[in-house]
């Protein structure tokens, strides 16, 4: 089709109607409803004109039904400037969607020589039509997809991977953020600089305190509002992090919906101090003396002869 030619008026009307209607693809009957003034023969002529200008792509369903997919004018112009080999390779990359396609698969589908495939890929990539991506499942493969698309989770591994590598630093930082948030809801005053007032070691809550504890949705909203990460995390992603914290005994689930930080995790993080007391400071060695009364079995009176038995010490008692 010559670049000096323009799309016929009725064909352009049909294309505009397809684009504005918003469907991905249309059957011939659906196209006739978009342009009711055209008879079947005229409609097919309009469709052929749009195909010639690259404004319609032919698709085939699993049951062999023919469908017509509208192509934007900008995409059509882009493809019209490609060589036949480039256009063919581009079409396979486009069809791969967010999964992308391996260069070896492109070569097999197009039946082009390796050098031709590489030359076309380089040309398309230099014009920002396509891009190469790394796959978590196949890190050694070079995979291509359309430039404006975002790779699927199956390809990237989700938010936990950066450049196909598990981002442990990112994961650990999120674990700390989530634990600290839940801890602040579990024991709001546990991290006060002056410790708990009046020598209280920890606060007890009434039975309905779980209403103040956070659930997955609360944790997700906190992460979004805090702006700790630009990465979008789904509720299942948050749940996975909470599962890790549960396994590490940093969180415990309440009624299978809410989360609470165990008191021991508060102490391990340096919280819960009583009036500035150092809970990890040196203790009085005297309390470990084996001769302390509380470490001695009390002497008992023998009922038969009335004599007092010898006291049994802890170290002797253990070996009995």
UniProtKB/TrEMBL annotation:
Keywords: DNA-directed RNA polymerase, Nucleus, Transcription. Residues 1-31 are annotated as: Disordered. Gene3D superfamilies: Winged helix-like DNA-binding domain superfamily/Winged helix DNA-binding domain. Residues 10-26 have a biased composition (Basic and acidic residues). SUPFAM superfamilies: Winged helix' DNA-binding domain (SSF46785). One of its GO terms (cellular component) is RNA polymerase III complex. It is found in: Nucleus. One of its GO terms (biological process) is transcription by RNA polymerase III. Belongs to the eukaryotic RPC34/RPC39 RNA polymerase subunit family. DNA-dependent RNA polymerase catalyzes the transcription of DNA into RNA using the four ribonucleoside triphosphates as substrates. Specific peripheric component of RNA polymerase III which synthesizes small RNAs, such as 5S rRNA and tRNAs. This is DNA-directed RNA polymerase III subunit RPC6. It comes from Candida boidinii (Yeast).
């Amino acid at each position: 089709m010559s670049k000096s030619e323009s799309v016929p008026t009725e064909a352009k009307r049909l294309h505009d109607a397809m684009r504005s209607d918003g469907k991905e693809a249309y059957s011939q009957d659906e196209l006739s409803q978009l342009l009711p003034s055209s008879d079947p023969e005229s409609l097919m002529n309009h469709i052929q004109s749009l195909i010639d200008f690259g404004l319609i792509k032919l698709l085939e369903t699993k049951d062999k039904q023919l469908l017509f997919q509208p192509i934007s004018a900008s995409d059509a112009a882009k493809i019209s400037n490609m060589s036949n080999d480039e256009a063919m390779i581009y079409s396979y990359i486009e069809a791969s969607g967010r999964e992308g396609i391996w260069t070896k698969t492109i070569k097999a589908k197009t039946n082009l020589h390796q050098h031709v495939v590489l030359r076309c890929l380089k040309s398309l990539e230099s014009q920002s039509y396509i891009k190469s991506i790394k796959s978590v499942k196949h890190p050694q493969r070079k995979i291509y997809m359309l430039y404006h698309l975002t790779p699927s989770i199956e390809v990237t591994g989700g938010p936990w991977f950066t450049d196909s590598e598990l981002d442990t630093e990112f994961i650990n930082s999120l674990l700390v953020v989530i634990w600290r948030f839940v801890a602040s809801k579990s024991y709001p005053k546990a991290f006060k600089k002056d410790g708990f007032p009046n020598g209280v070691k920890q606060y007890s809550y009434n039975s309905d305190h779980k209403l103040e504890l956070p659930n997955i949705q609360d944790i997700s909203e906190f992460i979004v509002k805090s702006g700790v990460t630009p990465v979008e995390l789904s509720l299942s992603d948050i749940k996975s992090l909470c599962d890790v914290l549960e396994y590490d005994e940093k969180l415990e689930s309440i009624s299978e919906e809410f989360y609470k930080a165990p008191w021991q995790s508060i102490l391990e993080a340096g919280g819960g101090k009583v009036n500035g007391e150092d809970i990890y400071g040196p203790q009085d060695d005297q309390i470990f003396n084996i001769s302390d009364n509380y470490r001695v079995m009390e002497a008992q009176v023998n009922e038969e002869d009335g004599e007092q038995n010898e006291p049994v010490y802890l170290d002797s008692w253990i070996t009995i």
